[in-house]
């Protein structure tokens, strides 16, 4: 007989305790409804959320010819810097609203391949103290302030409980590459009030994202938590606004024309709308943040091509006040550089504006294609005329294009 590595204990009633053998501690979590009452939805925020969702839904359906743009920091670790970024993006979004439907990327939860900082909700102090109640307050408060200012937001739904705390303030959501194949995330997506983008797998598999879209568009019954924090049985109607995101893979990108055409064919075979979002970062940028500029250039070329123009519904861009990334120093957040990512490296604000301007040009070329049934006098000349040069971008100076 082999001894168990676990040390069993006895309860006060003398019964052998075989539960929670690997649990170090359990702390109380604020119920969602209490947090919602502490940070109630304002009328201005409500209007922003609704308009953000309606715009995204219309683009996904193909009823709106603008491009859906999810742009912002890889993750939020500093509320002040996030609000400064919001102020910049809000002004640009208003100027570009005829061409781009812009939502600010406000990510609080970070999936980790092994270990690492898991985001503002999980560890708001960035020091391993895991003050999750504080993290939830910071997250909801920030979303409320951004939405009240008039700028819609986008998040990744990584945890299946956290949406009860923040989802009413969100206009679009993503299910990441590591969770797209998860049944509980597909069920979650089927009940969320936002459009949801499913990323292809880290191995490049598009099929799992197609399957996820099909699953999330159906109703499900599953275990969850109510706004009061009670265990509950939830029945959903299904989400008609789920779609695919091409984010590249561990072995390389999948944003180019042939990848878009192949993905569109798989969506058509599954009986789904052939509408695709492209993530300029992650595998598509080979984890080199300046390559997002090159990916965006290729997207503009595809918007100018009759073969792929109507398949592309939107883009994702990782952007921050300051380019690049930094590690969390030993002394904690006090040693961080203001406005720079602590997770994936990002474009700076100046280069972000140039990328967005270029995408606007692509949208307008696509409109010309539609008006002329897929033909312009010279689409290549139009594209060349508006193509930005390398010297226009600060980040390209450090990039090897090979």
TrEMBL record:
GO terms for cellular component: cytoplasm. GO terms for molecular function: 3-deoxy-7-phosphoheptulonate synthase activity. Its EC number is 2.5.1.54. Keywords: Amino-acid biosynthesis, Aromatic amino acid biosynthesis, Transferase. Residues 58-355 form the DAHP synthetase I/KDSA domain. It holds the Pfam family DAHP_synth_1. Signal peptide: none annotated. Belongs to the class-I DAHP synthase family. This is Phospho-2-dehydro-3-deoxyheptonate aldolase. It comes from Mixia osmundae (strain CBS 9802 / IAM 14324 / JCM 22182 / KY 12970). The lineage of its organism: Eukaryota, Fungi, Dikarya, Basidiomycota, Pucciniomycotina.
